[in-house]
Amino acid sequence: MNFIALQMLLGDRAKYLGLIFAIAFSSFLMSHQSSIFAGIMDRTTSQIKDVHDANIWVMDRYTQYFDEVKALTDSDVYRVRGVSGVQWAVPLFKGQPRAKGPDGTFRVVILLGLDDSTLVGAPRDLVLGSVDSLREPDSIIVDRVGYAFFFPGQPLGLGRTLEMNDHRVRIVGICNSSAPFTNFPVFYTRYSQAITYVGQERNLMSFVLAKAAPGVSDAEACHRISAATSLRAETASEFGWRTIWYYIHHTGIPINFGITIAIALVVGTVVAGQTFYIFTIENLKQFGALKAIGVTNARIVGMILLQAMLVGAIGFSLGIGSTAAFFEITKGNLDLRGFHLLWQIAAGTGATVMMIVTLASLLSVRKVLVLEPAVVFRG
Length: 379
Fold this sequence. Notes:
50% of the residues lie in helices and 16% in strands.
């Protein structure tokens, strides 16, 4: 019976290919847009993830997300250091000054100022140079995106200079950084230098990075810091998710991507359902002949579901393969780094496709279940 079901499906080549195309298109759109959305949300926490030395972020109690900062006072870092259960705490500066290249090209950059003595928060994935070179005067480490922007088409090299706030700075390292939400270049320097590269304000410290003492959990250290200083203290994971939820609640990004994904779901269901229905109606006599020779309704339903599963598997494979191929082709583009197909999205898309084809096939089953075997003998 399974062979007959497959022969019936493959016999109408146009409808067979139409079903596969509808499922493949729906799979591609759902997985592609879901992956882009996940990548964008992941970018909002890029600088948080790139700090591997500290597990605790301390900030103003009303801070909502990473990119909107109220500066702390210099004394706040000493207050955090004095909290029981804190092994160490250092300042971190985050600003967005304007950098200018040797040819006059300028661009806003994300500047991170690291503690002068420890360099906590320095990049780990260095292409050229070393973190210790930041101890040299007017030195910076730039990510590859920033280097490619200011020195397009030129090979990676150290010693080149840029200008920030009337200060000439020298590139002593080039790194790979996680892609930020705004896709600005990311620069690293020492805290004492960073505050001279931006417009002067009374307070300039953005965050305090801290590490819990041995035997004290990160959560407990955060609780102690908040209680002792009235500042907000969160683990890197908590702060990252706070940032993500801010963008979900306060921007139109989820709605826009959600509409596209919903359209893909509706199109896949409607087109597949309509095509399966027409396919079943056109094959009623064949199903009637099977019932006339004693094939049960349950067996026929199984045949229809087999047809649906085959179409769903082929369409899903083509759609998810197209999504994977897209991200594989674009992974070398620095502006698109960080976007990739997550296995959770692939699995979720597969489950959704199976639901679509099952629902579409079941919509046409009723005609078969109420079919009289005598239909095969009618003209």
